[in-house]
Protein: D-3-phosphoglycerate dehydrogenase
Organism: Nelumbo nucifera
Amino acid sequence: MATASAKSLLVPRVETSTLSSTRADSAAAAATSLQFLKSTPSLPLKLSHSRSCFRSRSPSLVITNVLKTQDSLSTSLSQGRDLETGSRLGMKPTILVSEKLGEAGLEVLRGFANVDCSYDLSPEELCQKISLCDALIVRSGTKVTREVFEAAKGRLKVVGRAGVGIDNVDLQAATEFGCLVVNAPTANTVAAAEHGIALLAAMTRNVAQADASMKAGKWQRSKYVGVSLVGKTLAVMGFGKVGSEVARRAKGLGMHVVSHDPYAPADRARAIGVDLVSFDEAISTADFISLHMPLTPATSKLFNDETFSKVKKGVRIINVARGGVIDEDALVRALDNGVVAQAALDVFCEEPPPKDSKLVQHENVTVTPHLGASTKEAQEGVAIEIAEAVVGALRGELSATAVNAPMVPQEVLSELAPYVMLAEKLGRLAVQLVAGGSGIQSVKVVYRSARDPDDLDTRLLRAMITKGIIEPISSTFINLVNADFTAKQKGLRISEERVFVDGSPGSPVDSIQIHISNVQSKFASALLDNGEICVEGRVKYGVPHLTCVGAFNVDVSLDGNLILCRQVDQPGMIGKVGSILGEQNVNVSFMSVGRTMPKKQAIMAIGVDEEPDKETLKMIGLVPSIEEFVFLNL
Ligand SMILES: NC(=O)c1ccc[n+]([C@@H]2O[C@H](COP(=O)([O-])OP(=O)(O)OC[C@H]3O[C@@H](n4cnc5c(N)ncnc54)[C@H](O)[C@@H]3O)[C@@H](O)[C@H]2O)c1
Ligand SMILES: O=C(O)[C@H](O)COP(=O)(O)O
């Protein structure tokens, strides 16, 4: 059931169809209506995962589309209309898959889009192709740099990382360009943990070296005497999804496991018999150190000469996380001087590493070419997980695995949907009341609610208010991904205040007020005594309503266009304005009058289906007793 319309919150929704890919490539989609889908189209899926947006029959929030071109996000309306036509005709989006993806995931993608599987593209080739693509799916081998987002010219709406690590995607650039980044964080966890354990065992028993030796015709039993795992201490560095699975398995091997993770809850570790300890304690007491933290500026080269100076002599290191968390030159030095007895590495600073890499060639190092996630099961799971996330995002749904946008649980989304529309409409309306809209610097949003502040997630509302305020006064495309960034860039400060009201906590928000300070208004009646523009809205019967302008109460549904007139309260005013509009063929959809006192000042709010021409508006202005009026496009 579709409800009212609102511009895209997240990414343009793109319709599916059977039209040719050439037309699809030139088609664009953007966003305009917010709707709940009672049931989503069924796609030819073979799903083996619990998280599936398609199987779900529960209502999901979809922000659908129509206006903007993917070639230029600041497109003109006329261009947009061509595209709108294309979208209604049902053009398919294009998804570029730049690294091998499991067939099950490709099947999901093909049910919705044109899929271009082009592996091993050079950076230049990727930049050339990307402006024809709505989404890009990568693994760890594709660098999605700022240049890629620039080359996309605004068309790229989603980058899907078929796996966990997103260190190969320039997240800041993605956010600035309003491009959503989603990943597939769970499907390869077990595979990575199993590979960690495989490397641990293979390293300690010299499996790879002994194998190579035998294949070279040798039989060197005394050379490859290993060390045992039982009773030894393993330090798991990073107690997240993979780290905790490694810990669980290591416990099963009879190891004593400690872990360092500044963000992990101690009770989760304790539950599997793992002690959370400090970094120094972990590295100085461990016989084995297994790395499971993400590569971030804080973890880059965390294992360096200084770290190796603190480890127990003869420690063994396993890395299935990211090569960059180790200073590889320092590790070679530590291996050469025996501080580190052995290392088993699946990941490298540069992938593939240079052929003459001392680390790869080192006799005490066991290596695999980034195989942690490479099991049939994990790849199938990851492919489906990312395909669903990307298709969902292209449909305009908020993704549960968004990396650069707030993740809002489905229940919260469903509940907030009408308020999300209200928020955008109020922002759009408030900014049009400002004389010279671009000078806005300070906006205060007041949410009146019977809910405890902890039970009211306002991030979506805030993003939509920002979108409503900024879009009418700039060519910037705003969505949930870049709303905060764009507001900051434009020097717009948005503060939020929550006011507790008695009422039913069953509805999340009683009313939303937007206050804009330090600006002139083109409709003086919208100003409060303190000089702030103020508008207030509520959701009534699921529909956003304007309930207050300045000090005047009104009651009009926020739909289409609105004329606000201030007049001296007297009989016959509605008739006069109504007949001017009627004579000019402008259909009045609703009217509401709010007044301070009988026969004093009143505000008339008139909803109109069509935009009146200048002459009609001038005639309204000439009606005696109308003191000011403003036309607002919602
Ligand atoms: N080799 C592979 O094929 C493969 C497969 C899957 C995951 N990975 C990599 O493994 C790593 C972990 O993946 P995950 O799914 O467990 O991620 P995760 O987010 O679930 O866990 C990462 C953990 O690291 C912790 N952490 C962050 N900074 C830390 C620090 N300075 N010191 C200690 N801990 C820190 C976090 O709190 C978090 O608990 C990632 O880098 C991921 O890319 C590699
Ligand atoms: O972060 C990950 O998910 C792993 O490193 C897997 O990377 P891959 O998809 O390139 O195998």
Summary: Residues 187-367 form a domain with the Rossmann fold fold (CATH 3.40.50.720). The chain has three domains: 94-183+379-395, 187-367, 410-633.
